[in-house]
Amino acid sequence: MFADFDKTNGASEAQDFFDKCTKHFLSLGADFTPTLHFPSNNGVISVFVFEQNAATLRFFSDILASDSSRFQRMSEAYARAQPNLMKGGAGWAITRFAGAEHLSLQLGSEIYVRRVPREFSKSIVCRAKAEQRFLDCSIEIGGQNVQGAMPVALAHTLAG
Q: Is 103 exposed, middle or buried (0-12, 13-18, 19+ CB in 10 A)?
């Protein structure tokens, strides 16, 4: 699923992390319960979340439970902001959110999310930027177009 990339500091560990996550994602059994499960325009999406900050997970879970239309708008804005997550039914992306980087793997209607360990997050971000698979959840301001910055539409849905 992942091509080789520059041998930046931590690249070997980053590749091992990608491989470990991919194997884990593909080995999840049908009986494994998704962390988040919601309808979309393309069918039901199942999200499996691992090693995530409890406050961040609670933030998204609360939005899904209390304002499903906002959650759907947020999901659609994310999909538009990160089109390389799903190419040909499968893909990956790195998102910087809540002070950490997160790997998202998507296969069909299932998404796997795992927090990236800090010791090789720089290497993973470099790779994601090079492949246009990075979304930094900082807000675009004043007409500046920072590569990978969060579009205003996504920021508005996150803010409520």
A: buried
pTM: 0.75
Task: Identify the three-state secondary structure at position 98.
Answer: coil
Domain boundaries, the chain: 11-159
Torsion angle in degrees (nearest 10) through CA of 9, 51, 18, 39? -140
Contact 93, 128 (CB under 8 A): yes
Q: What is the pLDDT of residue 146?
A: 52
Q: Could you say which DSSP state residue 28 is in?
A: -
Looking at residues 100-122, what average pLDDT do you find?
Answer: 90
Q: Provide the total of helices (H) and of strands (E) in the chain, helices listed first.
A: 5, 7
Q: Rounded distance, CA 58 to CA 55, Å?
A: 5
Choose between 94 and 137: higher pLDDT. 94
Residues 6+ apart with CB under 8 A from 40: 72, 75, 76
